[in-house]
Amino acid sequence: YTSGRHEQNGKRSWTTVPLIVDGQQIHGAAPPKNATVWYIDVRDERKAVTSSEVMVNQDG
Question: Which residues is 56 bridged to in the sheet?
Fold first, then answer.
């Protein structure tokens, strides 16, 4: 997630938070209320990656 303003796109700092995969569910803390954008990446044992939809906080 990032808490940077949308006008700073491309220059915002991003924070990575570990999540737990349990079968077909992913568990972890929600992004903080001041997050402006967030998404989830999942990587398997082959290092193949899939990502969730990018979520944008329109209030941020």
Answer: 37
Cα angle 8-14-19, degrees, rounded to a multiple of 5: 150
| pLDDT tens digits, 8-23 | 888 899 999 999 999 9
- DSSP reduced 3-state for 11: coil
Q: How many CB atoms lie within 10 A of CB 31?
A: 19
Query: pTM score, two decimals?
Result: 0.79
DSSP 43: E
- Give how far Cα 2 sits from Cα of 45, 50, 55, 59, Å: 27, 19, 11, 14
